[in-house]
Design goal:
3-stranded mixed β-sheet; mainly alpha; Helix Hairpins; 3 strands; 2 domains; 77% helix
């Protein structure tokens, strides 16, 4: 095997490593995780907003409860004074009765407000629970995708390690100057620095060598470097 045949094996290993890296980067689980993260960001924002709404509804509910307790205490106080026998003047009794009716009417309004506030609080809490459940489901799917990604990436990494070992064995048989030239060409020619010459065609650019160049190449020693006159890649013949 000529050194350029060995170098072609290096190229095949490098091509395979490029393919594996592309495959690893393009694993569908990465997209699933990214999509889940986007949805989570939206849901988290909704949860934060809904949590603020629930807190606000609770504050309103507590204020109503406090006001109701104050008015009920006032009604009880008036009722005690009215029927406790400490007041006997008719005018004063009439005023107490009127005040008691006013307070009771106020209590009725507060109770109505309390029912509305309670319904609003329960609705807000139910929506928050829905969002939290939605978040839990998204996290579960994301975790599942992350686990699958770890497994798939590990399989690719194991194959890549085998390819790197094969590359190391092949590159050890090639002189450093030839490897350096190959690396230079590979860096500037789309990852392919050496290609096979099949008939008159370069498999790197798929163009044909001229008859004169082809005749010249056929008379060269196999270890003599040959470049494609079209693309500049090293050729193995």
């Amino acid at each position: 095997m000529t050194m350029y045949s060995q170098l072609l094996e290096v190229q095949e290993s490098d091509t395979r490593l490029d393919q594996l890296a592309h495959r690893r980067e393009g694993l569908p689980e990465r997209r699933q995780i990214a999509e889940a993260d986007q949805v989570l960001a939206t849901v988290d924002a909704q949860i934060a907003e809904q949590t603020a709404t629930v807190d606000e509804r609770r504050h309103v509910q507590r204020r109503i409860d406090d006001e109701l307790a104050t008015q009920e205490a006032r009604a009880k106080q008036i009722d005690t004074t009215l029927y406790g026998g400490t007041v006997s003047a008719a005018r004063e009794l009439q005023d107490l009765q009127a005040e008691l009716e006013t307070v009771r009417h106020h209590i009725s309004g507060i109770e109505d407000d309390g029912l509305v506030a309670l319904e609003q609080l329960e609705a807000a809490q139910a929506r928050l629970a829905e969002l939290q459940e939605m978040r839990a489901q998204i996290v579960a799917r994301r975790d599942q995708a992350a686990t699958a990604l770890t497994v798939a990436a590990a399989e690719i990494d194991a194959e890549a390690e085998e390819v790197r070992a094969a590359r190391a064995a092949a590159v050890a048989e090639v002189p450093d100057d030839a490897v350096a030239e190959y690396e230079r060409l590979r860096a500037t020619l789309g990852g392919v620095g050496i290609a096979r010459l099949v008939g008159s065609q370069c498999e790197g650019c798929h163009l044909n060598l001229s008859a004169v160049e082809l005749d010249r190449v056929r008379h060269l020693d196999p270890d003599e470097p040959v470049h494609c006159e079209e693309c500049g890649r090293l050729l193995v013949r």
